[in-house]
Amino acid sequence: MNLKIAVLAGDGIGPEIMEQGVAVMDAVAKKFGHEVEYKEALCGAHAIDEVGDPFPEETFKVCEEADAVLFASVGDPKFDNNPSAKVRPEQGLLAMRKKLGLFANIRPVTTFDCLVHKSPLKDEIVRGADFICIRELTGGMYFGKKQEPQLNAEGVEEALDTNYYTRPEVERILRVGYQYARQRRKHLTVVDKANVLASSRLWRKVAQEIAPEYPDVETDYMYVDNAAMRMIQEPKFFDVMVTENTFGDILTDEGSCITGSMGLLPSASTGSSTPVFEPIHGSWPQGKGLNIANPLAQILSVAMLYEYFDLKEEGAIIRKAVDASLDANVRTPEIQVEGGEKYGTKEVGAWIVDFIKNN
To answer: Which of 2, 54, 107, 160 is the most buried (most CB within 10 A)?
Structure first.
């Protein structure tokens, strides 16, 4: 297969982990006889510094013309610490999702037996947890009508974010959830706040109307606060969870605590145009250039990319290599066992590439 891949390394540790992701992609392509063409493009703080736009039109064109986007991270403290900044790196990520029509974010949460001890939760709670959170990605408060802080007629400062959804937006993401549930353990949990929010009542109304179309899937409904608690108390309850944009953003980061590190979780964003594959963690600017960032989420995002194109063996060898690296204690500092050998970003990536070449 010939693949055109847009490479958006972004900010912070992004370029370092992207280097390892591309190396793994190349190793797999060579092993299975694929041709991969890469085209790099600007995004995030780097793009703001260069051209004043976190997702320039040229980057959009590169993404649009690619078969898939391999993305790393955006974010920089100089913007985080400036609440009056009009342009922010994260706006580039939102623009990419909107322009590419990426309405479905697929985030698997899977535990690794050899890393259960790294989770803040008890072994018996997290061991065997394996679920997918499907987050609606182009609606809700992140894209609804906004009003920046300003004084109202009474002289009181106010701001506004509108949690706006339409029936078609809700229905299409729910159907994605059902498709995944049918491929797994046939259990879908719809997460909302229907006891308080009108937008959530629309979600529950639509879900209740289409659930009978999927009689083979058990559907249940859970308020987001209860879901957050249940994820910590009983993560193995969940199979596929589907929810709106803001709730999904929060819950999926919470899910990273189950595995013990955000550096282990990949994701895919799909929709009407080019799919995007990325780690769920941020740019971690404090770790930039130190060769300590965990590249596994980026590498597992490459596995998801191959699997998206139905290249299952290619995805499987990457997953096998990651498992083998963890079992061999070839790990970056935040997940290394006490007294274990020191490995950096580059060393972990190189070990995985060698494993793929030799197995």
So the answer is: 54
pLDDT score, position 83: 67
**Catalytic residue ranges:** 142, 193, 225, 249, 253
The phi-psi region of residue 162 (left if phi > 0; otherwise alpha if psi is between -120 and 50; otherwise beta) is beta
Contact 171, 203 (CB under 8 A): no
The answer to whether residue 334 scores a pLDDT higher than 70 is yes
CATH topology match: 1-102+271-359 vs 109-260: yes
* Residue extents of the structural domains in the chain: 1-102+271-359, 109-260
Cα(82)–Cα(107) distance, rounded to whole angstroms? 30
Domain spanning 1-102+271-359, CATH class? alpha beta
Question: Using CB atoms within 10 A of its CB, is residue 338 exposed (0-12), middle (13-18) or buried (19+)?
Answer: exposed
Q: 310: Cβ–Cβ under 8 A, 6 or more apart, which residues?
A: none
H-helix segments, the chain: 14-32, 44-51, 57-65, 77-80, 89-99, 123-126, 167-183, 198-210, 224-233, 245-259, 296-308, 312-327, 345-358
Q: Please, what is the average pLDDT of the chain?
A: 94
| 63-91 pLDDT per residue, tens | 999 999 999 999 988 887 766 677 888 89
Residues 6 or more apart whose CB falls under 8 angstroms from that of 122 comprise: none
pLDDT digits over 225-253, tens only? 999 999 999 999 999 999 999 999 999 88
Asked whether 74 and 90 are in contact (CB, 8 A), the reply is: yes
The CATH H-level (homologous superfamily) assignment of domain 109-260 is Isopropylmalate Dehydrogenase (3.40.718.10)
- State which amino acid sits at residue 110: T
